[in-house]
């Protein structure tokens, strides 16, 4: 064996880097040929002795492994080694063990040199087929000692099956002797290959090679290729990858298919009709694969045949076909176009189909299908941009550009909008012929089209300013979007039409409006809904344009259209289309029509239609309880908005003066509605009063405010929503009426009524109503906070002297309390209102307590960045209000429900902030005393109020555990402890709430740290609870007392400590009360506490 050393050399100079030497071994040739020849020749002798046999095999392996990195050195010697070993194998005197040994040596050689090179040396003449096949059939596939034999025989057979003769010639006369049945060699080879594809050893790899060589023979391919592929697919589908056996079978079948596809010809496997059928498959991946396949196959066809494929693909675009076919067709066209296989002469046929695909939307039940078709159509347009010269696409540029813009702006699906935007951008970049392409690409880029509202209401207006796109966009909205199955799209489409009207007012007035009015009275519910909304929006937009030129709207809208708009309500009423499910769409649509007709100042004064419109608004507000919960709020808001506009336009004979009759009717009607038994009728009536214009309120303000205040004061659970809306309406009415310090209380907000309004709203801030939905009172509190802010800003802007110190103090303290409570949303709202009023200027809100200190806590520059929703940010600021006497009580009251709450993050940050404050005042006796007084006041004011008292006990337990009142423990019978014990006893008196009792037990154990007679009283309470009727309370008390005695070891005499602890831990406190009482009395003796005495109940008088 030759070896060469290569040194890297050494840098010059003695002070250089250390010498670096690289060495490698290179074999010069196969030098062990003599030894290998001797080893092979000795096999007939050594195979009988296991020791010499293993030595020979080991030596052969060592020699061969040296050539793993340079196996080509074996090439000159492979043939004589193979011949020597085959001579042993073929010899009739060779026993089976020697035959297997020969194949083992063959495997070792093939492993080093590689089976692809080595198998070519096997003899592969016609005479070798039968012996090799017979020898392979005699092997046991499950023998783990002879797998090398089976492996090499399969490789040998894969070479012999390449003989250039039809295998049927080797079968002879199979039917010459009926008594003997022989299977054809073709079937035998295929059967044995299939069987070895399912084994778990190396033979499986050789079997896959055999399959790739054998099944691709011309004669076998014609007869057995299809059957083998079916067998493979069936095997794969039935095998389970969850078991070892199933994994082996899957591996064999997949290996065979991989080898087939690698070595076989493409024409043997591709079936073109199946590719065309795959375009209509129900699976997207199949359609995509079929489209790719069609593109590849068509690229190898002559031009005439390729054009026939295009014609077959175009057959997918029929309205008799499903959305799957349209999608597959688009994918195929995109692939053909991308590869340059769609000739320009075909574009007149293809482009109209793509334009239809870009708006393809088929309704299926409550929704629709087609988003994948539209997305694929965008892909086609993208591919066309790369495939054609600008001159070839020029005749279709305007159509494609408009269609892509419409999809990018108006499609419901975000992926389609982004795909259309990308396709438009590609065309602009590569074609350069799209009208105003650069401007539109900048406005409607990938991110801009992500927001649907932005697309409909902003981007569409900009693009429509370019004349090529204006009418196509309007026509698309009218034809495809106002009748869309999604109500959100219908409403956005009508708003978009409103915004697009200035771009084409004449077209809207003379063409679009006459189209919409028949649809507004049509049969289809969605179309009718969208058409009514669109007619209303376009009319209002036309009014705005006419008003800019000091012209009446009737000069733009024809008299026929005006009559049509006026007749919509009566026609729907006559058809009873305000009832049922359809009525849930018709009522808000006609309410929008009423609002827009009123805002457009249509000449309908004293017209009977006004009475009809008023009836619809009143009936809608009275029958809200009959409407489904989903659309209810939208219908209510639409009716209220319509009422405001209707009053403003048609109930004002002279500017600033109301129609006395209508004013009396409406105000009386809605005030009466505030007393309805239906909560939703109350809500509608309250909001209706809040929407009335100023001239309708004039002279009726006292009556309206009294009704709203009365509605706010009714605390029944079922009227929570009514109180919320009454609180909203109260501020709306006051802001609308205006403020005048010396004005009449029946017309404006003045000194005579401002206090009553504030008292009502502050009373709403104490609404903590609970029902099955949770803290529904929070709705009322939120509305009251908003109303207080609006009311205060209104009063401050006109007559700040109306705000007394008491009113402002009550408002700010209530807001501080809400800012410290546990629900993130309402805490954030309260905090933002608090800061808004604090920082209000021009002029500032007067009489805010501790204004300077508050501005230091909430500086102007940091107030906007403060995230009130995050407990980690809100509570460190809120707890600073505990230092301010005016805010201390209310802030502590709000913190109580946060610290003693259930939400982990709220509890953690609120308690941490509270305890940080307590640590700061530990050395300040006056501040700590003031805090403890506020704490007792909170407890005293909320006795038996479980919303506060249970969290208060939890909070108090944490305070005592952290030794927050350690200063008081040095005093005998400190008054704070005495009062706290008295309040705790009162709180749990006759209580059956286990949560409250457990919290009280923890507090009692914490109170044990105080000195004096109070400690005896605490022990007495604990020993009372240890005999509580509830076993769980007895067990909890014993456990807590045990832990308490471990913590405070000075409570009892050390002499009885062990006895007490043993009794507490060993007694079964869940036994009956009589048994437990004995143990309890023993504890009383040990602890020196008076035994509780049973009180006999006297006779009922």
TrEMBL record:
Domain named Tubulin-folding cofactor D ARM repeats is located at 273-438
Alphabetical keyword list? Chaperone
Q: Which InterPro entries match?
A: ARM-like, ARM-type_fold, ARM_TBCD_2nd, TBCD, TBCD_C
GO biological process terms held by the UniProt record = adherens junction assembly; bicellular tight junction assembly; microtubule cytoskeleton organization; post-chaperonin tubulin folding pathway; tubulin complex assembly
GO: which molecular function terms?
beta-tubulin binding; GTPase activator activity
Query: Which Gene Ontology terms of cellular component type are present?
Result: lateral plasma membrane
**Domain (Tubulin-folding cofactor D C-terminal) ranges:** 811-996
Q: Record's PANTHER family?
A: BETA-TUBULIN COFACTOR D (PTHR12658), TUBULIN-SPECIFIC CHAPERONE D (PTHR12658:SF0)
Give the protein family.
Belongs to the TBCD family.
**Protein name (database record):** Tubulin-specific chaperone D
Classification from the root reads: Eukaryota, Metazoa, Chordata, Craniata, Vertebrata
Query: Which gene is transcribed and translated to give this protein?
Result: TBCD
């Amino acid at each position: 064996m030759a070896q060469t050393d290569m040194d890297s050399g050494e840098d010059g100079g003695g002070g250089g880097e250390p010498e670096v030497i690289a060495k490698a071994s290179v074999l010069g040739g196969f030098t062990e040929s003599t030894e290998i020849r001797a080893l092979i020749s000795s096999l007939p002798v050594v195979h009988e002795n296991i020791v010499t046999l293993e030595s020979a095999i080991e030596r052969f392996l060592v020699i061969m492994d040296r050539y793993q990195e340079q196996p080509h050195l074996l090439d000159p010697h492979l043939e004589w080694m193979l011949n020597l070993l085959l001579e042993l194998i073929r010899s009739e005197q060779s026993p089976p063990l020697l035959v297997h040994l020969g194949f083992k040596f063959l495997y070792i050689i093939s492993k080093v040199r590689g089976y692809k090179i080595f198998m070519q040396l096997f003899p592969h003449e016609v005479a070798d087929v039968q012996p090799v096949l017979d020898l392979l059939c005699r092997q046991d596939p499950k023998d783990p000692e002879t797998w090398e034999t089976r492996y090499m025989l399969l490789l040998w057979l894969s070479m012999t099956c390449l003989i250039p003769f039809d295998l049927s010639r080797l079968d002879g006369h199979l039917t010459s002797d009926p008594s003997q049945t022989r299977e054809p060699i073709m079937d035998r080879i295929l059967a044995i290959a299939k069987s070895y594809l399912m084994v778990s050893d190396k033979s499986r790899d050789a079997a896959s090679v055999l399959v790739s060589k054998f099944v691709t023979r011309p004669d076998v391919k014609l007869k057995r290729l299809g059957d083998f592929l079916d067998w493979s697919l069936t095997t794969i589908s039935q095998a389970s990858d969850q078991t070892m056996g199933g994994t082996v079978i899957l591996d064999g079948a997949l290996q065979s298919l991989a080898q087939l596809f690698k070595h076989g010809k493409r024409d043997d496997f591709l079936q073109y009709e199946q590719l065309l059928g795959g375009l209509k498959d129900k699976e997207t991946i199949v359609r995509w694969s079929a489209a790719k396949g069609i593109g590849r196959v068509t690229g190898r066809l002559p031009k005439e045949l390729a054009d026939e494929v295009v014609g077959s693909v175009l057959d997918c675009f029929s309205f008799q076909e499903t959305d799957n076919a349209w999608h597959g067709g688009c994918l195929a066209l995109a692939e053909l176009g991308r590869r340059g296989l769609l000739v320009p002469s075909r574009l007149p046929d293809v482009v109209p189909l793509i334009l239809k695909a870009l708006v393809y939307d088929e309704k299926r039940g409550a929704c629709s299908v087609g988003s994948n078709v539209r997305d694929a159509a965008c892909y086609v347009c993208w591919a066309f941009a790369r495939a054609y010269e600008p001159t070839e696409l020029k005749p279709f540029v305007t159509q494609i550009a408009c269609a892509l813009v419409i999809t990018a702006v108006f499609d419901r699906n975000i992926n389609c909008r982004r795909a259309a935007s990308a396709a438009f951008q590609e065309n602009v970049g590569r074609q350069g012929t799209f009208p105003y392409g650069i401007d539109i690409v900048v406005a409607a880029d990938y991110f801009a089209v992500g927001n649907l509202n932005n697309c409909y209401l902003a981007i569409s207006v900009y693009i429509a300013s370019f004349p090529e796109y204006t009418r196509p966009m309007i026509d698309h909205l009218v034809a495809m979007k106002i009748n869309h199955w999604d109500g959100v799209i219908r409403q956005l489409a009508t708003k978009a039409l409103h915004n697009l009207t200035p771009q084409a007012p004449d077209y809207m007035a003379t063409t679009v409006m006459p189209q919409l009015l028949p649809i507004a009275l049509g049969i289809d519910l969605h179309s009718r809904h969208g058409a009514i909304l669109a007619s209303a929006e376009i009319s209002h937009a036309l009014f705005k344009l006419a008003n800019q030129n000091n012209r009446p709207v009737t000069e733009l809208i024809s008299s026929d259209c005006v009559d049509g708009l006026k007749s919509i309500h009566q026609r729907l009423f006559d058809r009873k289309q305000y009832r049922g499910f359809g009525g849930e769409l018709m009522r808000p649509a006609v309410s929008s029509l009423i609002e827009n007709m009123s805002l457009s100042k249509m000449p309908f004064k004293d017209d009977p239609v006004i009475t009809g419109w008023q009836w619809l608004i009143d009936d809608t507000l009275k029958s809200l309880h009959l409407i489904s919960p989903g659309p209810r709020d939208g219908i209510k808001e639409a009716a209220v908005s319509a009422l405001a506009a209707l009053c403003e336009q048609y109930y004002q004979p002279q500017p600033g003066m109301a129609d006395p009759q209508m004013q009396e009717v409406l105000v009386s009607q809605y005030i009466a509605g505030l007393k309805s038994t239906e909560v939703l009728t109350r809500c509608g009536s309250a909001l209706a009063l809040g929407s009335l214009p100023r001239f309708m309120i004039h002279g009726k303000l006292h009556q309206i405010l009294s009704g709203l205040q009365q509605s706010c004061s009714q605390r029944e659970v079922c009227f929570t929503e009514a109180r919320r809306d009454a609180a909203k309406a109260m501020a709306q009415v006051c802001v609308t009426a205006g403020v005048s310090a010396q004005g009449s209380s029946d017309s404006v907000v003045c000194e005579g009524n401002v206090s009553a309004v504030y008292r009502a709203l502050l009373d709403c801030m104490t609404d903590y109503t609970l029902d099955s939905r949770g803290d529904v009172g929070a709705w009322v509190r939120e509305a009251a906070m908003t109303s207080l802010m609006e009311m205060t800003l209104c009063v401050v802007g006109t007559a700040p002297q109306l705000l007394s110190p008491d009113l402002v103090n009550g408002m700010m303290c209530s807001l501080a309390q809400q800012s410290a409570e546990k629900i993130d949303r309402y805490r954030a709202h309260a905090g933002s209102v608090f800061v808004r009023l604090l920082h209000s200027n021009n002029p500032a809100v007067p009489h805010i307590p501790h204004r300077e200190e508050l501005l230091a806590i909430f500086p102007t520059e940091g107030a906007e960045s403060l995230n009130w929703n995050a407990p980690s940010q809100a509570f460190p600021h809120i707890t600073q209000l505990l230092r301010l006497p005016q805010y201390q009580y209310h802030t502590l009251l709000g913190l109580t429900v946060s610290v003693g709450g259930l939400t982990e993050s709220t509890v953690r940050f609120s308690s941490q902030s509270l305890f940080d404050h307590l640590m700061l005042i530990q050395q300040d006796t006056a501040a700590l005393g003031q805090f403890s007084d506020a704490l007792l006041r909170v407890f005293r004011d909320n006795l038996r109020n479980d919303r506060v008292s249970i969290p208060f006990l939890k909070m108090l337990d944490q305070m005592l555990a952290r030794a927050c009142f350690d200063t008081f423990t040095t005093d005998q019978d400190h008054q704070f402890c005495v009062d706290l014990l008295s309040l705790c006893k009162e709180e749990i008196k006759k209580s059956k709430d286990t949560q409250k009792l457990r919290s009280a037990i923890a507090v009692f154990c914490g109170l044990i740290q105080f000195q004096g007679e109070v400690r005896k009283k605490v022990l007495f309470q604990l020993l009372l609870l240890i005999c509580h009727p509830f076993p769980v309370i007895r067990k909890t008390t014993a456990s807590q007392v045990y832990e308490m005695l471990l913590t405070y070891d000075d409570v009892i005499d050390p002499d009885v400590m062990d006895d007490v602890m043993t009794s507490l831990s060993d007694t079964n406190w869940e036994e009956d009360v009589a048994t437990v009482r004995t143990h309890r009395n023993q504890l009383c003796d040990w602890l020196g506490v008076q035994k509780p005495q049973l009180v006999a109940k006297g006779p009922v008088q």
